[in-house]
Amino acid sequence: MIPMRGLWTTARVRAAEERVMARVPAGSLMRRAAFGVATAALELLGGKRRVGLLVGAGNNGGDALWAGYYLRRRGVAVRAVLLAPEKAHAEGLAAFRRVGGRVVDRLGEVDLVVDGIVGLSARGPLRPDAAEHVAHLDAPVLAVDLPSGIDPDTGAITGPAVRAAMTVTFGCLKPVHALADCGEVRLVDIGLGPELAGPDLAELDDAEVGAHWPVPGPQDDKYTQGVTGVAAGSATYPGAAVLATGAALLATSGMVRYAGAAADGVRARWPEAICTGSITDAGRVQSWVAGPGLGTGLSAEAVLRTVLEAGVPVCLDADAITMLANNPDLWDARDPDTPVVLTPHDREYERLAGEVGHDRVAAARRAAEKFRAVVLLKGHVTVVAGPDGRVLVNRASGSWAATAGSGDVLSGLIGALLAARLDPVLAAGCAARLHAVAAERASGGAPIPASALLAAVPDAIRALRSG
Ligand SMILES: NC(=O)C1=CN([C@@H]2O[C@H](COP(=O)(O)OP(=O)(O)OC[C@H]3O[C@@H](n4cnc5c(N)ncnc54)[C@H](OP(=O)(O)O)[C@@H]3O)[C@@H](O)[C@H]2O)[C@@H](O)CC1
Ligand SMILES: [K+]
């Protein structure tokens, strides 16, 4: 198994920090952390010489003050605003003053701001006094541990927050680093590694997705790579069927069977798909994709029951999710061992499992547990939660995939990976990453329709496999 980029929640980080602190000299972790911040600051300054520190009430501010100390020793002019002067880190402040650091009321003109307002203990958005200082910044911001105002464990931004060009974090990555925009993220080793067990969340990087992507071996034929069944679309709206079938065809070399009322439209666009008008004639498949454009009437319910009874992994999207929300008895058709991947957007999620709320990871986990299914919650950050507690997250670099039909492509990709027998959490995670990369490559900075995203799938696979 290829290791993924792990992310640890604040409670776990604190527990690990405590164990490390018990066996190293007092203050040494902070100084290592601060030295890393100062090194990054020098790089961002690129020869400029004026740094401003925003210093909060805790150790995050202590890191900033010690970074100011190291920067002063390199001849940089450093001034600091203390947001809570009586609570500012005493040793850090003394060291900063000792080397000529100045404490001021306002930062004024500087070339770089170091955000040491709040770190792991952050709760809620920036408070008004801190928000006031942040609102007037012109210079780029280097965040200490995380951009202040963003929730460390959920990445939620519920009010004023720092926008960072770079974040220097310590020991390990925290959820915020994958769930929110932290600029470039750098990790400074402070020796937490041995104290950290498995991560709470993980992020797949491009090379990992490329390595997991199924490719045919010398012994493979169209059947051995898995046959994907697509039950989507309608005669009036064949688009969803065409997109989902196309995605399944482009994702792997396995065969694709389409079953439904859009058979003519699908056949015209994808002559290589085996098309039938009814799911009862579809033949054997190794996975089903059901839901996009399917409708929610009685015949659609019968289709949903058939795929849930088939005993092969299923990806359910769009109308399939609505049907399950309206009629939970439909779940009875499923053998408890049949893997199911649900791919709701927020409104579909709400129909199925209630409010998403600010903690999208917790929301995906809740639904995964409730339905004993893999839940892929769509969004700028896609969260994939497995019923076993595993969570994968993927943050898209832009929002170009937020367009009609884009979800149909995603479900086809997932279906093909399920047919290729990828673990369902991994199938959903790899498909989400590939989908985001295809959107980015197809877009190149301009809006694109879902068919262009689909057309970029082979290019995205090539890019991930070579990365
Ligand atoms: N432990 C270690 O080994 C190491 C730790 N390290 C560093 O310590 C950091 C954690 O430090 P920490 O725990 O002292 O708290 P920290 O995040 O600075 O918060 C301070 C106070 O701010 C307040 N506050 C809360 N929310 C707020 C908001 N929205 N807006 C404004 N203020 C807000 C709240 O105080 P309150 O005002 O509520 O009393 C809170 O107690 C960690 O991120 C890393 O940088 C590194 O040096 C490596 C070694
Ligand atoms: K910070």
Q: Which ranges are low-confidence, i.e. pLDDT below 50, for 5 or more consecutive residues? A: none
Query: What is bound: which ligands?
Result: ligand NPW, potassium ion
Beta content: 15-25%
Going by CATH, what is the homologous superfamily of the largest domain?
Ribokinase
What is the CATH class designation of the largest domain?
Alpha Beta
Distance between the termini: 17 Å
How many beta-strand runs? 18
Task: State the helicity in percent bands.
Answer: 25-40%
Write the CATH fold name of the largest domain: UDP-N-acetylmuramoyl-L-alanine:D-glutamate ligase
Domain YjeF N-terminal: 13-198
Protein name: Bifunctional NAD(P)H-hydrate repair enzyme
GO molecular function: ADP-dependent NAD(P)H-hydrate dehydratase activity; ATP binding; metal ion binding; NAD(P)HX epimerase activity
Catalytic activity: (6S)-NADHX + ADP = AMP + phosphate + NADH + H(+); (6S)-NADPHX + ADP = AMP + phosphate + NADPH + H(+); (6R)-NADPHX = (6S)-NADPHX; (6R)-NADHX = (6S)-NADHX
What topology does this entry show?
Blueprint: E1 5-7, H1 10-21, H2 28-45, E2 50-55, H3 59-73, E3 77-82, H4 90-98, E4 102-104, E5 112-116, H5 128-135, E6 141-144, E7 166-170, H6 176-179, E8 184-188, E9 201-203, H7 206-212, E10 228-231, H8 239-251, E11 256-259, H9 263-269, E12 274-276, E13 287-290, H10 298-309, E14 314-316, H11 319-326, E15 340-342, H12 346-353, H13 360-371, E16 374-377, E17 381-385, E18 391-395, H14 406-419, H15 424-443, H16 450-455, H17 457-466
Bound molecules: ligand NPW and potassium ion.
